[in-house]
Task: inverse folding
């Protein structure tokens, strides 16, 4: 697709998906950015379709392909909202080419996270469980509140998403859990309770609990609840449109362009590290 010489040229991976289509819209609306390619899985029905048409924009001449390596050659980076296994294959490509890699995909295992961290020796990766400005600000607030309140305040993270979501708890819920754990200076892996059923016994002080609801078309609701003796603080974010994630991902890509390889978070992009 046409763009000026200094435009950042990006490949959208998962182009046929909910986020992929939204990203194709967002790229078309973003100054300084051009669509260099659109990629989906080899067995996907969208291969060969015009990316703009599929996204409801009208034809833009970019055909969706399964050959990410080919389209990445003419691009500055790749923005990927797909599935965890695909992230690893894309990370190999972006690392080999020393390019920007924006990872929006969630649900990676600890082993997969380690592979991504290794790829960041050569690729400039920004990975976030949630790319919206509001949620990243929420995470900074959760960390701040958790630092102030002691174990008398039980921390519970509640999330709700649409009925097609395949992983739980959401990447964002885990991100909020990590923020709370950082604020308390504890290890989330040691203290997280992922759902409760049956005779669980009483809640242990200091645990961070997670609960997931699924239904309808909910884009993403998240609450961090600090339940104390006779009072409760609830910090909530409600996403109303996927465009907030797409805009954040593009903002991250522009920020990452020309930056040295490494694994960055949205807090780095937004300058929220020291909140
Ligand atoms: P979706 O199922 O609508 O789309 C995923 C797309 O990826 C599909 O088109 C699928 O064919 C494609 N895909 C699968 N394997 C592939 C491969 N090997 N190569 C290329 N494409 C491949 O899902 P979605 O709702 O768009 O969400 C995608 C991911 O993004 C999920 O992990 C979701 O949790 C995450 N997400 C993250 C954020 C964020 O801000 N970080 C926001 C929304 C969704």
Result:
């Amino acid at each position: 697709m046409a763009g000026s010489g200094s435009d950042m040229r990006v490949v959208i991976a998962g182009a046929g998906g909910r986020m992929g289509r939204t990203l194709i819209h967002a790229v078309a609306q973003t100054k300084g950015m051009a669509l260099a390619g659109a990629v989906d899985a080899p067995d996907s029905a969208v291969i060969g379709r015009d990316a703009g048409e599929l996204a409801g924009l009208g034809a833009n001449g970019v055909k969706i392909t399964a050959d990410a390596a080919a389209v990445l050659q003419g691009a500055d980076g790749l923005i990927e909202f797909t599935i965890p296994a695909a992230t690893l294959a894309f990370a190999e490509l972006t690392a080999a080419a020393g390019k920007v890699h924006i990872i929006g995909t969630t649900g990676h295992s600890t082993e997969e996270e380690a592979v991504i961290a290794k790829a960041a020796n050569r690729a400039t990766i920004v990975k976030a469980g949630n790319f919206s400005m509001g949620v990243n600000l929420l995470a900074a607030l959760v960390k701040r509140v958790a630092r102030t309140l002691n174990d008398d305040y039980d921390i519970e993270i509640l999330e709700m998403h649409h009925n097609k979501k395949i992983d739980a708890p959401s990447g964002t819920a885990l991100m909020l859990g990590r923020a709370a754990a950082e604020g308390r200076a504890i290890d989330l892996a040691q203290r997280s309770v992922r759902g409760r059923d049956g005779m669980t016994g009483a809640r242990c002080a200091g645990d961070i609990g997670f609960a997931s609801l699924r239904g309808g078309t909910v884009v993403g609701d998240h609450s961090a609840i600090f339940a104390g003796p006779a009072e409760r603080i609830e910090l909530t974010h409600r996403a109303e449109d996927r465009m907030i994630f797409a805009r954040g991902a593009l903002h991250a890509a522009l920020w990452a362009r020309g930056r040295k390889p490494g694994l960055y978070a949205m807090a780095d992009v937004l300058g929220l590290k020291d909140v």
About this structure: The pocket of nicotinamide-adenine-dinucleotide is lined by residues 13-14, 16-20, 39-41, 44, 81-83, 86, 104-107, 128-131, 171, 245 (CB under 6 Å). The chain has a mean pLDDT of 96.
